[in-house]
Amino acid sequence: xxxxxxxxxxxxxxxxxxxxxxxxxxxxxxxxxxxxxxxxxxxxxxxxxxxxxxxxxxxxxxxxxxxxxxxxxxxxxxxxxxxxxxxxxxxxxxxxxxxxxxxxxxxxxxxxxxxxxxxxxxxxxxxxxxxxxxxxxxxxxxxxxxxxxxxxxxxxxxxxxxxxxxxxxxxxxxxxxxxxxxxxxxxxxxxxxxxxxxxxxxxxxxxxxxxxxxxxxxxxxxxxxx
Length: 226
Fold this sequence. Notes:
The chain has helices at 2-6, 22-31, 44-55, 96-109, 133-143, 155-165, 179-188, 222-225, and strands at residues 13-14, 41-42, 59-63, 76-77, 84-87, 112-115, 121-124, 127-130, 148-149, 173-176, 192-196, 214-216. By secondary structure, it is an alpha/beta fold. The chain has two domains: 2-43 and 154-219, HAD superfamily/HAD-like (Rossmann fold), CATH 3.40.50.1000; 44-149, Rossmann fold (3-Layer(aba) Sandwich).
């Protein structure tokens, strides 16, 4: 990170993580040796709070990990008459009762459905696993209501970051391992893209209809490439 900063590059860290709050993401990254500030980290909750503020929504029903609930301390958490329902990753806690509860609240109150992200899959315990996206799609199908997407590859989420960087689109590079959230999202936002062949990278990505501007074996190759 220091080498990139020495070149005068601005850095922002985008994540679709919806299991822990931003301050814990920061702690985790600093423990790995990253020299970053909390304000440089953008999560789906960042965009969600902006959306709720713009809609003047205070009453919400939140389906997330218990740790993430602290991000919504300034809101009324309710299952009586929520104006918005926020879906995040709860891993193995997803079950029929929770999905049915969400469906009934939307049907009864016409609540906004907010999806913190819609990743199809992720890496859990070193192997590919279902992520939040399939559960959101089930609710959309049953309720006939489209979810408001807050994480990557949503263009509004990326626009928040672009505005914060105060740079022209053609001077911004999106680097990530996810062909959909990172590469397609970056392309749709008008950014250059680099895919890292680690994490969620799959060999089938090489045949995707949309390709990154470059691929690298690991993040250490970024500096030379730039």
